[in-house]
Each structure stands twice: as C-alpha cells, then as structure tokens.
Request: fold
Amino acid sequence: MRYKEVFRVLGNFLFYFSIVLIAPLFVSVYFDYIDASLSPKSTTAFLESIISCLFLAIIFRFFSRKTTGVYYRKESVLIVVLVWVFTTIISALPFYYSKTLSDPVDCIFESISGLTTTGATIMCPKLYKDGKEVPYIIKNKLPHPEKDYVFFGTIKPVKDSSDKILLQGIEAVSEGILFWRSFIQWLGGLGIVVLFLTVLPALAVGGKFLLHAEMTGPIKESVAPRIKETASLLWKLYIGLTILEIFTLLLTNKNMQVLDAFCITFSNLSTGGFTIKNDSIAYYNSYLTEWVIIIFMFIGSINFALYFHILKGKFFRIYEPDFLLYIAVIIIGSGVVIYTLVGAQAISLEGAENGTYNFMRALRDGTFHAISAQTSTGFVTTDVSYWPWRTQLILLLLMYIGGMSGSTSGGIKTSRFYILHKILKNKVESIFRPSLVRFVRIGKKQIDLNTASTVLSFFILAFGFSIIGTLIYSFNHIDLESSISSVACMLNNVGFAFGVAGPATSFAFMHPLSKLLSGFLMLLGRLEYFIILLLFFPMFWEK
Reply:
C-alpha cells in the first residue's frame, strides 16, 4: 500500500474542502451580524472548522513529501473511503463547535446522514417542565413491549428574557448550520469524489476508478472521453438544475424565503430530505410547492447520462428498458399507495387527527410520499407511521427498489432488478434449452458475466445486511417495525421510517451503538457495499 500517495491526495482534498466551508461561513456572517436573526450564532464554529480542516491538510501534506503522484486500484479504494470518512468528520465539526449538538456521536450521525443524502436526523427539541429538562417517553407499539423509549431531546429552544420559548426544534438552529446541513447533502448527492475530480487535475492514474467507485448502479457510463471532463459536465448539469429549481420554488410560492428555496433545492435535487422547518414540507402547505418538489425528486433520480443524450438530440435513449421500468414502478407504486390510502385516517406531523383520505387527498399525499420513498428523498407532509400497514409495506418496497443507476437516488436501482430478471429468465430457459447460447442485455448493451455476478452479489449483500441490521437494532431494544424500517431507511439512504422512527420524531431515541451502526449502514448504502467491504479483507492490506 502506497500510504504516502494516499496522504498526498487526502491533503489536497482537505485543502479544497476548507474552501467549501467558506459558503456556510458567509451565510452565518449574514444572519449573525447583518440580518441579526433570533437563532444562535455560528460564525465562530465555521471559522474553527476551516482552521481544523487546514490543520489536517497540512499534516497529511507533511507526511506525503517526496511522492511520485502515482497510485493504483488498491490506493484508489482506500482514497474513496478515507475521503468520505474525513469529510464526515470535518462536516460534523460545525455541529459540535456551535454546540448545536453536544454529543460527538450525534454530530457524526447528522453529518454522515447529510453527506450520504439519507436525511435521517438526530435533531429534536428538548422538553422542559418546571424549568427542568425532562425526557421523551414514547410507548412501544408492540403488544408485549420490553420497555418504552425514554430519551432526551437534542436542540435547546430559543427563549426571550421572560423565559418564553420563541423557537424550538430545527427552527431553533442557526441559519448557517441549517444551510450547511442541506449543502452537504447537495455535495454528497453527485459525490464528494466527483467534485474532487473536477478541481484536482493530478489524478491521472486512478481517476477513472475513483469516479466509478462513487457512481451508483451496476453499469458506469461516462459522458465524455476524459474523466475530468465527465466530472466537470456532471457538475455543470447539477448546478444548472439547482439554479432552475431555486427560481421555480421562488416563482411558484411568494411566501418562500430565499434561504428556504436554497435549502429545499439542495436537499431535493440530491434526493436528501433535510429541511429547515419542524413540519418538513407540510410547513409550506402549497400544492404548487409540493409538485415542484415532486418533479425535481424525479429529475434527481434519473440517470444523469440520459440528460446529456437528450441534449445531444438522442431522444431514442429514453426508450431504454431501465428508464421505462423506472417509470412503470413509479406509476404502479404511486397508484397502489393512493388506492390503499383512500378511507384511512390522516394524522398530521403534530400528531393531530386530520380527517380521512378521500381520492383527491390520497392522490396528493400518496403520490408525494411514494416518489419521496422510491427516490430516497425522504421529504414528508404527514405522519406516514400512522398509515395502514399495507401502505407502509409498499413504501418499504419502493425504498429498496430506488431510482435509476447514475442518479443521486439510493436503493438497489431499477437496472439491477432488470438484470436479475434477465438472469433468472435465462436460467429457467436453459433447463429445457441447454444448448442455446444466451446473453444478458439492457437494451442494446450486453452485460458481461462479471457484471451479472456482481448484481447477484449485490442482492445477497442487501438482503444480508438488512437482516443483520434488523437483528442488531432489535438487540438494542428497538421494536421490530422500527428496526426493519430503520434498516431500510439507512441502507437505502431514504430518511424516514416507521414506528418510533417515524417522521414526526427523530432518531434521537437510538442508543449510541445503534447510531454508529446507522452511520455505517448509510455509508454502505451510499458506496454500494463492495468498496467498504474490501477494507475488511486481510489480503487488501498485504503488499
């Protein structure tokens, strides 16, 4: 292992990432000293984070002197993982330095949830009674519960001089921190390494592997001959779509604040799910806003290479099986959710009964949450943990199916299901036609045996980690409904779950070990298992 080469790349990356931290610093300065909002200040926290990041960059550069700038696949694997690990640590520092979150484990959870575009949050308001902080006590829904959930909130309220609460929950967090939460989702959506490849031209040897290691799906499609050019084109398209959504949100909702539009867009296009309001998207109570978000959730879950083909006039590429299958799953999934919702009880995020679902209301909420689940965005407008169990089951399946390969969405991806279907079809046919030579194809693309076996391995890993994660959560005294849905949430980078992990609460109820497990599952899902698992093989570390 050429560790000095790895340190050299990390040092360069951390230097550039310290520049990224300037954006939330400016936002903090504006709201702390120019706009003078009620929320806590965070300018100093970002200054300290930049200094910490630069300090780490200097250390890595010091230990990587006299390097050749040449590294290979083994080093590339380690670089991808370490870039994500150190980005998570640096991204967690503003939460810790600003005292937004006091527990380092909570800071790491929030950070990795943002970067992996999961959107699961640890933030929930602290509760007080007679001037003293009291815990949340949530009844376990199981018929024979082991024990109820008892935990403390994480966010201090903003009070006036008479001790009256002015802001609480997420809305009591500084604007700079809220901007940062959404911004790291935007960065992680397309990929930290993809951004890295656009600004570091020195990655001549391992650049292609770095790009493909972070891109999602079984088939990695480049949109330009050179890796740096591919990364640059992806980011130009990503930025263009970001600007388009910001202006669309502002034009369609006159009450939308500029900060809200930026943060929603960052979380939406990256299919992340963080919001800056306690009631998530329900706060805006606008049909137009919800449909704009639905459209851009869909846009973010499409293979970005497809956009380049369309821009070049190759409209026939939309007839590829992966895209058609994805459209079919969205339509069928949304339809089933709508059908099962009609007549069900509606519960708001505050826990209040809100009537029953008629068709039009089911169409609005059902479509929004079905697409939110399948695209792994995780935005909500109501408490889905109170929906009928069969509706929750459909949402759970949509979480695992996910979006298209090469998109910002999580899940297994529709292309893998298509390949699995082809493999099974060929296997069944070979029983009565053993002499026939068969090939697995997606459209006109032939899938080699290595890709086919990788797809089968992926399904085994997804199934295996779902079981293991559920068991570990259960051993940490989390009920089965919450355990199963939390694993689906973390592995598929969705953001909401059911039971005690429903969207009306947060994941603050988890034990620190469960939070660390959640962070590991998020990273597994974002990097699609194999890159992370390589580190656990002794042969990887051999010379």
